[in-house]
Amino acid sequence: MAIVGGGACGLVTAIALRDAGVDCAVLERDATPSGSTALSSGFIPAAGTRVQEALGIADSVATFAEDIAAKAKGQAAPHLVQAYAEACAAALDRLGEHGLCFEVLANFLYPGHRVHRMHSLPERTGVALVAALHRVAVEAGADLLTSARVEELVVDARDRVLGVALERPGGEHERIACDVLVLACNGFGGNPALVRELLPEMRDATFAGHAGNDGSAILWGQALGAALADLGGYQGHGSWVVPQGALMTWAVMMQGGVQLNARGERFHDETQGYSEAAVDVLAQPGGIAWNVFGDAQLALAREFPDFREAEAAGALRTAQDRAGLAAIIGCHPDALAPEIARLGPPFHAVRVTGALFHTQGGLDIDAQCRVRRPDGSTFPNLLAAGGAARGVSGNAVWGYLSGNGLLSAVAGGWIAAHTAAAQLASRN
């Protein structure tokens, strides 16, 4: 049993397989597992978890699925919305039994969520999440082969995957056989040609994702004749700090902060979502905006390690009056949007741009994460989840509900593992 990719999706798959008594190998291109997960905030949405129950948070799979579907305006694949909404709580509860101490972020709601359901480790970073999953996977007995860049899938005349060909350090080439293959590897945000073709509005955007998102899963699928879906879906972010190059939490916007352009104008409704905000920000003069907020929002922002690091690098500017804020932004004080009156003084500001984080389209899969052909039939032993597969954000940037990326990774990995275990058991 082989898994391509050692991010959250691949590691959750490995943990679930080992829980089922299945031997597996994770093939990771980097020397240390990271992927898109390590670049995220590490927040996973789930409904009906033990952690929520302990906090008295009433949530349900039905409510969660409705929120996912509503954000995507009905465009998200219904079979995956339901499957992922059902699976994520079970996955997090089991990871809790392995020692991952999840907390629920209960002091604010992310756009589109009606209930506090965003789960995080205490560190509140994707790096911590990957490290914890890596530790559990190794302790559970999964084999992890790093610096192993998969180059192609080896299949027979009946489209059964026999194994993979990979490149090792020094240019050595190897082949590894497998009974079932799970693609848990990547999207295509790091492939400029595919971005220009499929996401033209992001062609000039900063790519803030992992370099491994080179579209290889899509290219392998195309070579096999697999179906692709939702290639116009992606996670953007309208709060990429420049020039420091860091992610600023959107919690500041949800708690009353505003975004102003270089003319001092508020140009959109920040509560609609940080993904579509990327397009709005890029449409402003110079592709730049200013996150403007007060002391209360600053205190909240400082709860997040990414913001503290950006602040230490000089990203935060503070003004004691409107004239000072206007000087920071470069506009006339009279041009400043009236909404800033509710924030200060003092006024705090961070310069940001819109960025592309990861794509939400990919290989078409069924509710069991089996890769499909255009006619709806499935490949006999090829599964996909996470960035390699279509997600639950539909076919546009505005369909991304906060946390959809890690939802697809964790729930998808959990489902793929159980599908693989069942396929292997049926052959014995």
From TrEMBL:
Cofactor: FAD
Signal peptide: none
Residue ranges of domain FAD-dependent oxidoreductase 2 FAD-binding in the record: 2-395
Molecular function via GO: oxidoreductase activity
UniProt KW Plastid keyword: no
Keyword Flavoprotein listed: yes
Domain of life: Bacteria
Regions annotated as coiled coil: none
Alphabetized UniProt keyword annotations: FAD, Flavoprotein, Oxidoreductase
Matching InterPro entries: FAD-dep_OxRdtase_2_FAD-bd, FAD-oxidoreductase_2, FAD/NAD-bd_sf, Succ_DH/fumarate_Rdtase_cat_sf
Name of the featured protein: FAD-dependent oxidoreductase
Source species: Ramlibacter cellulosilyticus
